[in-house]
Amino acid sequence: MTERPMETPAATTTTLVLRFMDDLTSSYWQLLLAALALFLLWRIGTRVVGERPLFDHFPRITAAFDVFVLPFSWIVAGALLRLANRVVGIPALDASIKWLTALAAYLAAGWALARLVEVQLLLRAEERRRERVPQLIVGLIYILLMLVGLGLFMNQRGYSLSGVWVSTGVAAAVLGLALQRTLGDLFSGIAMGVERPFRIGDWLELPDGRVGEVVDMNWRATRLRGWDNATLVVPNSNLASQSFKNLHGESHVYAPWYFVKLPADVDPRYATELLLQAAMRCDSVLKLPPPVVRLAEGGSLPYSYMVWVHLREYPAMFRAREELFREIHKSLLESGIEVAPQVQEMRTRRAHISSAEPPTLALALQSLEFAGDLTDDELAQIAARSEYRYFNAGHVLLAEGAVSDALYVIAGGLVDSTVLLPDGNRKELETLGPGSYFGLTAMLTTEPSFEEFIARSDVTLIRVDLDCVRTIVDARPELKDKLVELVKQRWDLAEAARVQSRRRTRRLTMRDIRLGIERRLYNPRIPRH
User: Fold this and answer.
1) Which terminus, N or C, of the chain has the lesser number of Cβ atoms within 10 Å?
2) How far apart are CA 180 and CA 176, in angstroms?
3) Number of other CB atoms surrounding residue 285 within 10 Å
């Protein structure tokens, strides 16, 4: 080791501090001893009880306070110990006690600084609602800052760090060979901590199929907790050298897809509508983004349909999957459809014939809000003058500024309602599902539609003819008041969106709507845009 002169700035400062404490201790050793005892009792008491009132309420201030208090406590303890040694009369121990006191003070300062950094990281993670900092990163911070303290102590003792490094190079090489696997785990953990391929709380799927939640990551291994609540310890080097799937966890949408096989006798449009309605009924399935149903395989029997859903997080997958298949089973059972009627048996039997037909128009029209005010004959009359219309995803069903020529009831699929904002962007107001309708407001007033309705998925609509509505209202004048009230409610609900629309529209009154209905019903020659 290469020695340097003892009187370095760090050595001078340390010597002055220790000399000052010796003078202070000689005069006020009773007071300093009492303060040190109270401090130790306080720290030990908080550890035993498990409650830290100052730290829990003021974590940053307490951690910053420890940066000064902990080193000073060791300096006071060393000064009291040297005073006791002088009383006993062993002067040979004075120098050793002095440099041990300095070493403890430097290490305590490094530990307190690391604690302050840890508190800052933890509080920042809580403020941003992120996962806690891995123990590997926290441990490296403590090791680094305590090594800095050790280096400062060695520097003030007059030792060259480069000389120490050269003199211990051979021992370090031997130790490195002995700890090759351990060091591999350490540096693999550091690499993953920098890259962040996963976070605390994420779910990982390993190549062998095992799945677990990341609960901790230290300098040697990553700990995963499986569904059986068992902890799987995976060395960092093994985890870094293999591929794995991050399924994510809390606050991260999980989007699995499932396949359902249905007979080829079922109309694919009707099949996708049934599966979509079943997915929309599930409480565990997110409505935004909405579920997607597609015909995945139609080249073999039976046909295969893909149901793609979005869940709040990966752990919700099990409950959502059960709920989804339960609703699919219910929809298919009510429609008379058998799932994948493939029988691998060497015997004959009467095959089940799927009688899957879309619901009648009269049955589908019963979902209207004013259907309760219509008789069965009137519903049958409207159904006789109605028809199914099919549109692909992305089709504009009713453009903004156009006047609808009929009432459209959604029998299957999803429809987006949007408005054009002054900045040229479109804002989505709501997503309409089966049973909803549009065109009633524009059909019964002279005002053009301020909304635009676009098919979000393949949709099946029921077009209700205007002449048929006119005939029923002629025979039922009281029905007109019901329609006026219904239109007024729908108009008021969309008033906030109307203000954001690119064109100014005046607020309609009940009288305006009633006059508009009468003009539309009794004047068939209204220009259509």
Assistant:
1) C
2) 6
3) 22
Task: Look up residue 282 and give its two tokens.
Answer: 């599930």
Residue with tokens 């519903």: 379
For residue range 161-208, list pLDDT tens digits in order: 555 555 555 445 545 544 566 777 777 777 787 778 888 888 999 988
Pairing relationship of beta strands 303-308 and 386-391 according to DSSP bridges: unpaired
Gap between the Cα atoms of 204 and 110, Å rounded: 35
Distance CA 412, CA 435 (A): 8
The CB density around residue 314, as the number of other CB atoms within 10 Å, is 21
Between CA 496 and CA 281 the distance in angstroms is 28
Whole-model pTM above 0.85? no
Q: Which of 137, 129, 134, 141 is nearest to 63 (CA)?
A: 141
CA distance 408 to 398: 10
Distance CA(305)–CA(293), nearest Å, equals 7
Q: At 172, is the secondary structure helix, strand, or coil?
A: helix
Backbone angles phi, psi at 157, to 5 degrees: -80, -10
**Tokens representing residue 62 in the block:** 């307490």
Mean pLDDT of the chain: 76
C-alpha dihedral, 105 to 107 to 112 to 118, nearest 10°: 180
Per-residue three-class SS string for 363-432: HHHCCCCCHHHCCHHHHHHHHHCEEEEEECCCCEEECCCCCCCEEEEEEECCEEEEEECCCCCEEEEEEE
Which of 330, 202, 320, 326 lies closest to 256 in space, CA to CA? Answer: 320
Q: Which two tokens stand for residue 107?
A: 């290490």
How many CB atoms are closer than 10 A to CB 191?
Answer: 13
| Cα-based torsion angle of the residue sequence 506, 511, 512, 518 in order, rounded to the nearest 10 degrees | 170
Rg (CA), the chain: 38
Give the H or E element holding residue 73. Answer: helix 59-88
Tell me the residue type at 293.
V
Residue 370 near residue 437 (C-beta atoms within 8 A): no
